Fold:
Amino acid sequence: MFSAHILRTLRPWIISRSFANLNVTAARHVAPITQTCLRVTSRSQLPAARRSFLQTHSKVQYQYPSTRCLSTTVSSEDGNLIYSGNLANAVRGVKLFSYSTSGFSLLVMPQILLNTGLGVQGFAIQAAYCGIIGVFTFLIPVLLHILTKGYVIRLYHNPEKDTYTAITYSVFLTEKKTVFHQRQVRIPDISKMFTTFYADHIGLMVNPDMFPIPHDYNHLMGYDKPFSFDADDINRPDES
Structure:
């Protein structure tokens, strides 16, 4: 009877001490997590870490902020990258294949002339054969270069100077830089298939849909400049 009375008396003290030890243990486990989330947790939510371990752990997991990947403009010494051509690898691959086949044709042409006996044939036959091989060896690479020399693979803009740097492929598939000012941009009077605009006297080709920011294309072409017109010019008949 005496021991039972002592247990009833000490029961509240034992329970309070047990909860105190549990809170201290929970605080030790939660401390590293709350430190990492200290920047994203408001002051009104910090006392929640002193509650039970299960409640605090669940709240800390809920308080982790979601990570968002924001697109940033790539900058270099030429300015901000505002355009990347989607056919850059295709243009390089086609020209490289054309150059490879042309070089292979030049290597095997003497062997074909000797082994087939064309070297001892008449001049007309030799001229016809060399003409056909020459078309595929020289004319096609030159034609490909003329059509694709103005294709812009990357375009940089320097907003301070309002200058552009267009990167294109040269004859030897090396990157070629063309620097021009916005006031040098001229739109052709007649739409051309392989020329979007002229930078001074150099024809360049870009795809308007590949500009991440449409305003960059509008500024490049000068579409954002103010303009004025006279209403009398509209009603005036064309003089021919």
